[in-house]
UniProtKB/TrEMBL annotation:
Top-level taxon in the UniProt lineage: Bacteria
Pfam families: Methyltransf_28
UniProt-recorded name of the protein: SAM-dependent methyltransferase
Protein source organism: Effusibacillus lacus
Gene Ontology terms describing biological process: methylation
Molecular-function GO terms, alphabetical: protein-arginine omega-N symmetric methyltransferase activity
Amino acid sequence: MNQLHHLIADKIRSAGGRITFAEYMAEALYHPMLGYYNRPEMTIGEQGDFFTSPMVHPVFGHCVGRQIYQLWLEMGSPSSFTLLEMGAGTGALARDLLQEWDRLQANEPAANSGPVALRYVIVEQSPVLRGRQRETASETGKGRIEWHATLQEVPGYGSLEGVILSNELFDALPYHRLVMDKGRLLERYVTLEEDGSFAEVTAPLSDERLPLLLDEQIREGLEEGDRLVLSPAAGKVIREMADALNKGYVLTIDYGNLSPDVHWQSARSGGIRCYYKQTLNHDPYTRVGEQDITADVDFSYLQREGGQVGLETVRFSTQSDFLENFGFLDKVTDLQRMAFRDLRADFELQKMLTLYLPQGLGDACKVLMQSKGA
Ligand SMILES: C[S@@+](CC[C@H](N)C(=O)[O-])C[C@H]1O[C@@H](n2cnc3c(N)ncnc32)[C@H](O)[C@@H]1O
């Protein structure tokens, strides 16, 4: 039992014996010093516990860069344009995306209005990761990225024009766990055993409004023992993103699916996944703060919440379809030609394909584009 385990145990005691799983997850991932994303050694990729698309291959950031560039063109090539990335991890996406933006600005005839200084804003809650991002993007991002810890702190919040982007942000927010028990939806809480280890207990919902986060089809189709995960925090973030924008797009890339499929998947699997040293497990109570905890995103919920605050769904697709639209397959074809002669090209090709193939991230990751006044 590490220090964070003891701190959470104290919190459980002072809360009268139990806390929601969402409260537990918030501490395990975001405790200011000991939480998974705030520890000095936190990293993503080979040295860390899991990979994300930007860490797999720079072509991901290049394709996202092309998408951002196209949105800028669609908005009439404004001379002032903000790209806000929320939850930027190591900063790899910012680095690769800016590289592509610069290339397009330099080469594309459509940029005839002259180069535009993209305002790149990163909203990152972790001071450790903000430092890592500064290092990673030190070349392409030098002097043109600004950092903030929360969305509301961003100068111009409410009047931004541009794109708000995130990759694997929503799957890392705190989730409540619900279970269908004798015909009623109840909640799973975290409590303590006598020896101080964590255990789960089922009790009435911490908030009667939680089932309203589900669409009706799910609420009516639940069977005894089905388990669900829900994140009101995700609804709050999408609302804040909408509020931050005056005009533009919200581009969300993440693991998950539309409802009801996303909930049927988690009803069977329990919904929560943990990663430690690139290995999947389903025990969020070991190595507290030293392993990642994540859940699939309900994209229908993001669309419903967004719809209430002026975000209109433009497109929802798999990551494979998204990448195909932005020149991914041309790059694959080039590498395939070289791979006959060059082993390094073959290795690179294999990595790139992880982003695209259904057994990799291609189907599991989805891309949702919503627009506001654009
Ligand atoms: C799973 S990581 C993804 C990192 C990166 N986007 C990538 O794809 O490699 C989640 C990121 O979101 C950040 N994060 C989580 N909640 C946040 C919040 N409310 N505001 C800003 N950043 C947040 C974490 O600190 C971390 O950088």
